[in-house]
């Protein structure tokens, strides 16, 4: 009986051990791949990844879109991934706040910030290759979808998300803004006018505009950089991506190319033929935009924020924002629209990169894209965004993103980074437009000016 009692105790102990093993789920398994230790996340009963580290620290830029979206999407993420806790730090100066953490090697797990972050921290992290590669995120498939995430993104935008020309994606494109040319859609509809496809068609509208008491064109006079909405896409249309890359990298002769010469010539034509609304050069952005809204000019460059920015400005009766990409020189040319976007990033030194990747993927779900539009009027850089957000954004914003479904290609332009210098190449390029409009500078002088600055920047980079 003593032996029987001992055997029963042993069997009970063994059964208890196996029962305990059956109820436990290993959160992760370590494997050796390519000489490095990597973590493979297991799945829970619903097939969702079950992370060992369930605490995610995120840093969010709190700009014009606010923080309401992030509060709600965090709540939804935590509900779906039981046990996960997301800690958010948000601020209009978020990069100033987290920069010391990044420098100390203790960054947040996830960062949302504009690519044009004015502290330069984002560009520095890109330059120093301090961001985690995200190719596996875009190669993966979202729950309920059959194609990989990369197929869902706006055409060619992921090319810009791999800035080192090595195919490694380090930026997840998020909210996208489109820049181009605006007109009064109500006026065009009533008059039976068609938005021009080529520059010849646009210039041919001058006489029509004059007969209607209008000028052809205006821009934000003392801020001529608004014309980048026209210049860079038009260079790409005329000379292809190579012409843009040559200019951005200050290649010798880049500004003497036929493409650049043709685009600079557009502004000379506007100046010489009297197409510009009088007084434009001396106006600030709100003054020029208000005159446009009141019907003084047919076209003005601006971004998809235009309607929201000018919501209280006076305008002619029935005014409706119409948007188009800059015209092309010849029918059949590729047509581009300058595009800017905000990014999602994971620092290489993040403590919880796998959960951060899952959080990035969560932002591209259709329900998250709709929520983002509802809370911010922002549009995520996916192909079907226009259909998803139509009920939540102004008509003008909807139309500005829909062009990518109609054959227009996004163009993201960034001057090559050089050692510190007093030369502001972008300012020098566009300040010249005022001189051209005042007939104080010729196209040839503009080209020589840009070649001179490009030479100096090229020498600095050597």
UniProtKB/TrEMBL annotation:
Give the record's family classification. Answer: Belongs to the bacterial solute-binding protein 1 family.
Stored InterPro entries: Bact_solute-bd_prot1 (IPR050490), Bind_CPR0540 (IPR022387), SBP (IPR006059)
Write out the entry's keywords from A to Z.
Signal, Transport
One Pfam family it belongs to: SBP_bac_1
Tell me the Gene3D superfamilies matching this sequence.
Answer: Periplasmic binding protein-like II
- Cellular location(s): Cell envelope
Region (Disordered) residue spans:
26-49
Protein name according to UniProt? Carbohydrate ABC transporter substrate-binding protein
Q: What is the phylogenetic placement of the source species in the record?
A: Bacteria, Bacillati, Bacillota, Bacilli, Bacillales
- Spell out the PANTHER family in the cross-references: ARABINOSE-BINDING PROTEIN-RELATED, SN-GLYCEROL-3-PHOSPHATE-BINDING PERIPLASMIC PROTEIN UGPB
Signal peptide extent: 1-19
The answer on whether this UniProt entry bears the keyword Signal reads: yes
């Amino acid at each position: 009986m003593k032996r029987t009692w001992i055997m029963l105790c042993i069997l009970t102990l063994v059964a208890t051990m196996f029962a305990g093993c059956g109820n436990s789920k290993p959160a992760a398994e370590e494997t050796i791949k390519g000489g490095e230790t990597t973590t493979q996340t297991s799945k829970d009963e619903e097939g969702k990844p079950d992370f060992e580290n369930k605490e995610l620290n995120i840093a969010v830029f709190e700009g014009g879109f606010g923080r309401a979206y992030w509060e709600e999407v965090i709540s939804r993420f935590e509900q779906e991934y039981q046990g996960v806790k997301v800690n958010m730090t948000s601020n209009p100066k978020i990069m100033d706040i987290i920069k010391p953490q990044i420098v100390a090697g203790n960054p947040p797990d996830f960062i949302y910030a504009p690519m044009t972050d004015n502290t330069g921290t984002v560009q520095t992290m890109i330059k120093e290759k301090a961001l985690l590669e995200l190719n596996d995120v875009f190669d993966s498939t979202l729950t309920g979808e059959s194609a990989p995430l990369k197929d869902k993104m706006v055409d060619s935008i992921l090319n810009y998300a791999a800035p080192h020309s090595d195919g490694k994606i380090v930026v997840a494109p998020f909210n996208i803004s489109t820049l181009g040319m605006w007109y009064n859609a109500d006026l065009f509809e009533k008059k039976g006018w068609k938005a021009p496809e080529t520059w010849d068609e646009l210039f041919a509208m001058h006489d029509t505009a004059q007969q209607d008491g209008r000028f052809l064109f205006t821009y934000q006079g003392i801020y001529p950089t608004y014309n980048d909405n026209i210049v860079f896409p038009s260079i790409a249309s005329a000379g292809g991506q190579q012409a843009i890359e040559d200019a951005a990298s200050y290649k010798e002769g880049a500004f003497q190319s036929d493409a650049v010469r043709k685009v600079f010539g557009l502004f000379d034509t506007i100046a010489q033929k009297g197409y510009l609304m009088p007084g434009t050069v001396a106006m600030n952005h709100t003054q020029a935009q208000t005159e446009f809204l009141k019907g003084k000019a047919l076209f003005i460059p601006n971004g998809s924020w235009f309607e929201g920015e000018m919501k209280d400005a006076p305008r002619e009766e029935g005014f409706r924002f119409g948007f188009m990409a800059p015209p092309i020189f010849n029918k059949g040319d590729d047509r581009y629209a300058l595009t800017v976007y905000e990014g999602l990033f994971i620092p290489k030194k993040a403590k919880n990169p796998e959960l951060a990747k899952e959080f990035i993927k969560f932002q591209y779900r259709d329900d998250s894209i709709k929520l983002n539009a509802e809370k911010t009027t922002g549009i995520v850089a996916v192909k079907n965004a226009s259909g998803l957000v139509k009920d939540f954004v102004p008509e003008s914003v909807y139309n500005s993103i829909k062009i990518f479904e109609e054959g227009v290609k996004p163009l993201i332009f960034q001057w090559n980074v050089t050692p510190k210098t007093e030369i502001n190449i972008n300012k020098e390029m566009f300040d010249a437009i005022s001189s051209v409009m005042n007939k104080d500078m010729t196209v040839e002088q503009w080209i020589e000016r840009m070649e001179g600055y490009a030479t100096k920047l090229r020498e600095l980079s050597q």
